[in-house]
Amino acid sequence: MGILGNNPAITVRQGRAIVVAEANSCCPFPRKDLERMAKRRYQAPRPFKRGAWWCLLTWTDDFTGGIYKRRRQWHKLAPAKLGIREVQKLADEILHPINSGLHSIGSATNFAHFVNTTYILLELPLLASSTQERYSGVINNYLLPQFGTLTLRELTPATLQAYFSGMVNSVLSAESRDKIRDVLASILREAKTKYGLISTNPMENVALPPQRRGRRRHKPYITRQQFEQLVQWISEPYASMVFVAVMTGFRVSELAALKWEDVHADAITIDERFCRGDWSEPKSEASNATVAVNQEVIERLLALKEMTIVVNWGGKGAKKSVKAVRSSRPNDLVFQGLRLGRPMQDHNVLSRHLKPAARKLGLDFVNWQVLRRSFGTWLKIAGADVKDTQALMRHSRVSTTMDIYVQDVPESQRRAVNKLSNLVQ
Fold first, then answer.
1. Count helices and strands in the chain by DSSP H and E runs
2. Which residue in 22, 90, 91, 217 has the fewest CB atoms around it within 10 Å?
């Protein structure tokens, strides 16, 4: 045991090191810079006239490319004809956040620097690979070109609202605008809650401009007759995958991860998912559940164990017979790739099997989400209770079930209207 430095109260064991406080801090500044900035925190500059304007000159902290600088910042307060008292009130509004500590030292961090060195490296890898791709596209195509030169403190609610309000005449779809807002809100939320660089999230009350026309409430689904025709046009084992998708409402990522230990006599357990090469837990807590399924589903899955399929193998039209299920041990996949037994890729099944079959029937709109929506709509037509439908689709909120996945159909609406005659009699 030895004494550390000149302080006999602090000791260190031989062969062990003490990590200094600066090394354990998420703040990008050395201690000497922190102390220097803290001493310069209070400012009281006087407004002055410059040409036709009242102006104010303040000091601001800047951290760009790993280099700390303290620079002057000009503020145009008001036209020179305005009285000094009103001008002083405007100046106080600018100085108040600086002198009260609402502008944290970390807020001097450049937005592009934080995104590239912290958010992309530490936060983005925690998301699913498909989400990472979309977030990266939004960051590179929209956020960095617009806000890359600004510091975090310069991303004020007014600045951000002006950016989104400017989208009123944009050709971007409503979904694209929503995604830009979501990605920016995620970045600033991490800067506030996890890294403490800003004291508030300026995106909290930012609103998107209204659409010129309402969104279509009716979203397509397939009927039972269309479903039966569709399955006939698809080869196995992909036909069974589509069959189970419609008859259970499972997400395709959940089907790709389904294992034989999850298949029971009259129910199926969903406890993981596989999407674009990533294994993860289900989408939400409500999605992690065991749900009842139609007996046809169980029979169709069990039939895969005995199924042999002829596939193209090699060149010159060579064929080979392979088993749809190479192994059916508890931890083996239900839907296995025919060549190597690996998990099926949802986009390959969609583009090579589901979409071509749907086009032959004139159902160009069919995709995996349409199949899931069809399940929910069929339950409504069959008269299923709303809460039962929510449980079977494993949604956290019943509003998601009813507003997005369960569609009103003309037949059920007519039946509902016709019931009114019984009230009159």
1. 18, 11
2. 217
User: Which pLDDT belongs to residue 371?
Assistant: 94
Q: pTM higher than 0.70 for the full model?
A: no
Question: What are 58-105's pLDDT values in tens digits?
Answer: 887 666 555 667 778 888 888 988 899 889 988 888 787 767 655 555
Q: CA-to-CA distance for 405 and 399, rounded, in angstroms?
A: 9
- Report the phi/psi class of residue 65: left, alpha or beta, with left for phi > 0 and alpha for psi in -120 to 50: left
Contact present, 257 and 287 (Cβ < 8 Å):
no
> pLDDT tens across 132-188, in order?
889 999 999 999 999 999 988 889 899 999 999 999 888 888 889 999 999 999 999
Q: What is the CA radius of gyration of the chain?
A: 30
Cα 125 to Cα 121: distance, rounded to the nearest angstrom? 7
Of 367, 348, 368, 347, which Cα lies nearest the Cα of 359? 367
Contacts of 422 (CB under 8 A, 6+ apart): none
Q: What is the DSSP string of 17-29?
A: -PPPGGGG---SS
CA angle 180, 127, 209 (to 5 degrees): 15
> Of 299, 314, 324, whose CA–CA distance to 235 is shortest?
324
Q: Where are the beta strands (DSSP E) in 246-315?
A: 267-270, 273-275, 278-280, 289-292, 308-312
Phi, psi of 3 (to 5 degrees): -85, 135
Q: Where are the strands (E) in 180-247, listed by range?
A: none
Q: Using CA atoms, how far apart are residues 5 and 27, in angstroms rounded to an integer?
A: 25
Q: What angle do CA 346, 347, 349 make, to 5 degrees?
A: 65
Give the CA distances from residue 364 to residues 38, 225, 352, 358, in Å, rounded to whole numbers and listed in that order. 63, 16, 14, 6
Structure tokens at 301: 């899955």
Candidates 413, 387, 412; CA nearest to 401 is 387
- In tens, the pLDDT along 239-258 reads 999 999 999 999 999 999 99
Quick one: CA dihedral 146, 148, 149, 151, positive or negative?
positive
Among 145-159, 253-267, 308-322, name the one with the lowest average pLDDT. 308-322
CB of 55 closer than 8 Å to CB of 48: yes
Please list, in sequence order, all residues whose beta carbon lies within 8 angstroms of the beta carbon of residue 222, skipping any fewer than 6 positions away.
Answer: 230, 246, 363, 366, 370, 371, 374
Question: How many CA atoms does the CB half-sphere of 61 hold within 13 Å?
Answer: 28
